[in-house]
Design a protein that fits this description.
alpha/beta; 18 strands
């Protein structure tokens, strides 16, 4: 009797959630899991710590810090949209000195891995803030929010052009003692050359994506719903744009670590970002609706992986089949 090869699928080796390894690596950083708190939606963690131990996250990306205090833009600053929200906060923060005296000690005391998001109106301001953070315990990386206006160039975005993106990153790299991730805007013709320029300038990786510029109008008053007129769109509406950007950059630079963000709210969203090429995923707008969102993902991800026989979360990275 002839033997016919079996066409049955090979079953994955059974895995329990406890056996799943959630650790991921970004440059020299090894994080306990790929779930981060996105900048601007989590402050520095103290408020959310009422709901769960923020030390269980892979890291907290703090609200962008500037050299001097910023009062922010006029209200209203936020407007709900059909699939997310618009915001025009204006990087309101108390300045780096206040952050160091108030928020930083709390994070260090609680053992939270800190990714410090920094911003500036000029290249020099980015360097000043980075110098203030140099060598500090607990800060595992810097996220350079270069999707903010460049005062030296008439208000254009640093991340809108390869040359200005590279200039900011290289300036920060002269003083930084930890990996630097360049946070990029999707509001460009081609995001890949900008990511490449940032990497060439010394960035260890990139954060994708910042909000998408949008606008909403009150049809009764005929006025913009935001005092600033336009603002950043975040939430589920922008996730396909973010997935596309992550995939584009990972396809060209597969060794460049990527922190994915933009509309992630569920375990499946996180898996989708990782399949596109992200090594870690930041949860942002979802936290406003559900403060437990990031922790629910941390707890749910091992179950999702175990059910599919996946032992290592990092094996998802770049696994999309095209």
């Amino acid at each position: 009797m002839s033997t016919v090869p079996s066409s049955r699928k090979v079953r994955a080796t059974p895995v329990t959630p406890a056996e799943v390894d959630l650790r991921v690596q970004l440059d020299d950083m090894i994080l306990r899991n790929p779930i981060l708190a996105a900048s601007g939606t989590f402050a520095s963690g103290q408020e959310i710590n009422r709901f769960f131990d923020v030390n269980r996250l892979g890291a907290v990306v703090v609200k962008s810090i500037t050299m001097e205090p910023r009062p922010g833009l006029p209200t209203p600053r936020m407007a709900e949209t059909a699939s997310g929200m618009l915001n025009a906060i204006g990087l309101q923060n108390a300045g780096v000195e206040r952050w160091l005296s108030l928020d930083y000690p709390w994070l260090v005391h609680h053992g939270v891995p800190i990714i410090a998001s920094i911003a500036g109106r000029t290249v020099h301001e980015y360097r000043q803030v980075a110098e203030k953070l140099r060598g500090l315990e607990g800060i595992v990386a810097i996220e350079a929010n270069i999707s903010s206006p460049n005062a030296d160039a008439g208000g254009g975005l640093f991340a809108a052009h390869p040359a200005t993106a590279a200039e900011v990153v290289s300036t920060i790299m002269r003083v930084a003692t930890v990996p630097v991730f360049a946070k990029l805007t999707p509001d460009v013709t081609d995001i890949v050359p900008i990511a490449h320029a940032a990497a060439e300038a010394g960035a260890s990786g990139v954060s994708l994506i910042n909000t998408v510029l949008g606008m909403a109008i009150d049809v009764e008053t005929r006025q913009p719903k935001l005092a600033a007129g336009m603002g950043g769109l975040s939430g589920p509406a922008i996730k396909p744009i973010a997935i596309r950007a992550v995939h584009q950059i990972h396809s060209v630079m597969p060794d460049l670590p990527i922190i994915g963000m933009g509309g992630a709210a569920t375990v499946e969203d996180v898996v989708e970002f990782m399949l596109a090429g992200a090594s870690a995923v930041a949860i942002g707008t979802a936290t406003f609706a559900n403060p437990m969102a990031s922790m629910e993902i941390v707890e749910g991800l091992p179950n999702w992986l175990a059910e599919r026989g996946i032992r290592h979360a990092r094996s998802l990275i770049g696994g999309v089949r095209i």
